[in-house]
Design brief:
alpha/beta, Quinone Oxidoreductase, Chain A, domain 1, 10 helices, 15 strands, oxidoreductase, GroES-like_sf
Length: 339
């Protein structure tokens, strides 16, 4: 291939995002300067926060500008290197964006550029050992602080982060209740991931089911969705409970801001704590999470699920899958095989 295919951000989102927000272009393959590395993207990561990057407002990363290549994590292969630490043919994890080829400067960008450890597949690197796995680990362990015998409630439980949160909580001796949408996802969480109980928010009254499955209320709520589910959860918190605010995917595609929970005062009454976090703050400690997660996967204590799509032309539609609930587990897309 002599051209670099790209998907650019063409329009800021209003409501549900989709192909209309992006423009396909073809450009020349970029040149490499001293200290730089040219990579070919093989797999792309899709994460709910990508919609936030498309909005023109301050955040933990600068917004993607109109006309820029859409930002995304990737597993890529080094094609040309002007940096002594990276050799042609090596597989790396970086922020390759929605394009075939990218020039990366080691030590720069949201995640820099990191070689895949021996025996680690691209799927593992972008899921259980990637941003979502580390988010689950640090979010639960640092902010949820689970203790044996406690009850951990997880929303977005069938997603890449939520499913790992629940399994780590089980390993720590907790009762785990997940909230997910649809019988297939709920069955996977109960039968495969080992959750103690699961609530189908699409077909059940969430507050009533929390009362049933958390008879002693909950101690940790790991929230990936916000909105009405957060409000329902706040009706059932214990003394000194912890709410880990990881995401709010239920509100990401709203045209008008959604009303907030009307029962936040329950946190005051029960001396609870609600705290947000960003995984980028924990990247200096990445190996701590990776080593723990690799050990649990190797022992069979954690099962992870990947939803793999294929084809460069399907990139925008694959992102949309996150917000329509079509994915089970970590959403990835394969562009190419290694050379």
């Amino acid at each position: 291939m002599t051209l670099n295919r790209q998907w650019l951000l063409a329009a800021r989102p209003s409501g549900m995002i989709g192909p209309k927000n992006f423009k396909y272009v073809e450009t020349s393959i970029p040149k490499v300067a001293n200290g730089e590395v040219l990579v070919k993207n093989l797999f792309l990561s899709f994460d709910p926060t990508q919609r936030n990057w498309m909005v023109d407002k301050p955040g933990y990363l600068p917004p993607v500008e109109l006309g820029e290549v859409m930002r995304a994590g990737s597993v890529s292969q080094v094609i040309e290197s002007q940096h002594s630490d990276f050799a042609i043919g090596e597989l790396v994890q970086t922020t390759g964006c929605w394009q075939d080829y990218a020039v990366v400067v080691p030590g720069q960008g949201p995640t820099g550029i990191n070689k895949l450890p021996p025996g680690v597949s691209p799927e593992m690197m972008l899921s259980i050992l990637g941003i979502t796995g580390m988010t689950a680990y640090f979010g639960l362990m640092e902010h949820g602080q689970p203790k044996a015998g406690e009850t951990v409630l997880v929303s977005g439980a069938a997603g890449a982060t939520g499913s790992v949160v629940g399994q780590i909580a089980k390993l720590k001796g907790c009762r785990v209740v997940g909230i997910a949408g649809g019988p297939d996802k709920c069955a996977w969480l109960k039968d495969v991931a080992g959750f103690d109980a699961v609530i189908d928010y699409k077909n059940e009254n969430v507050s009533e089911q929390i009362a049933i499955h958390c008879p002693d209320k909950w101690d940790v709520f790991f929230d990936n969705v916000s909105g009405p589910i957060l409000e329902a959860a706040l009706e059932h918190l214990n003394l000194h409970s912890r709410v880990v605010m990881c995401g709010g995917i239920s509100n990401y595609n709203n045209i008008e801001p959604a009303a907030g929970p009307n029962n936040l005062s329950n946190l005051v009454t029960n001396r609870g704590r609600m705290q947000g976090f960003i995984i980028l703050d924990y990247l200096p400690r990445a190996m701590e999470a990776i080593e723990a997660l690799m050990g649990w996967v190797a022992s069979g204590d954690i099962i992870y699920q990947v939803d793999m799509q294929e084809g460069f032309e399907n990139i925008p539609r694959t992102l949309q899958r996150l917000y329509t609930g079509k994915n089970l587990g970590k959403q990835l897309l394969k562009i190419a095989d290694p050379i």
